[in-house]
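Feature request, filed as a ticket because there's no other form

It would be nice if the structure record came with a short human-readable summary line next to the tokens. Right now we just get the raw output. Example of a typical job, pasted below so the devs can see what we mean:
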Amino acid sequence: MEHITRRDPLRVGFVPGVTPGKWETAWVELHRRTKTQHLTLVPVEVDDAERLVRDGELDMVIMRGWAEVDGVHQIPLYKETAVAVVAKDHAAAAFDELELRDLADELDILAEFPDLDLPMAIETAAAGTGYVLVPMSLARLHHRKDVTARPVLDAKKSPVNLVWLVDRDDVDTQNFVGVVRGRRPNSSR
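Raw output as currently delivered:
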């Protein structure tokens, strides 16, 4: 495969709750000496993330969950802890951490109303009507003074992955992969 360095910025999308700043900082440091290769971070909706890569609108995307494997590379970055978002005066708020059985008699708002957007679901939880089970980063993103979030130890963790097309596997793409894997300016592959 011929490795071509692109002239345009590397466009990397990221879904809500993902904070790519540390990788952007490492990318800038990696390219400081050469003063080349700009990086553009693009916030994207969860439902659009994979499509934007497949359509060529983004070079890569940091997304929650797994992409369809056909024609893409993906590497796991981390797994997010699930939390239950409940009203501050909810009984579950008295505990530091929960298990799913602790919530068994409560309304799982997003499971009952899957078309509800997350801010409205959290507003519903704030009213004392059940709980919202989400990755911790989304609970932080949509934090309100009238709710609290508690880790749910036995809930499924949410994988966050870096995804890009096999056809776009160039030098710059691999350099970004190196950055998210912890490669520094003075380290080698």
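Something like this underneath would help us a lot:
Residues 46 and 95 are 31 Å apart (CA to CA).
The radius of gyration is 19 Å.
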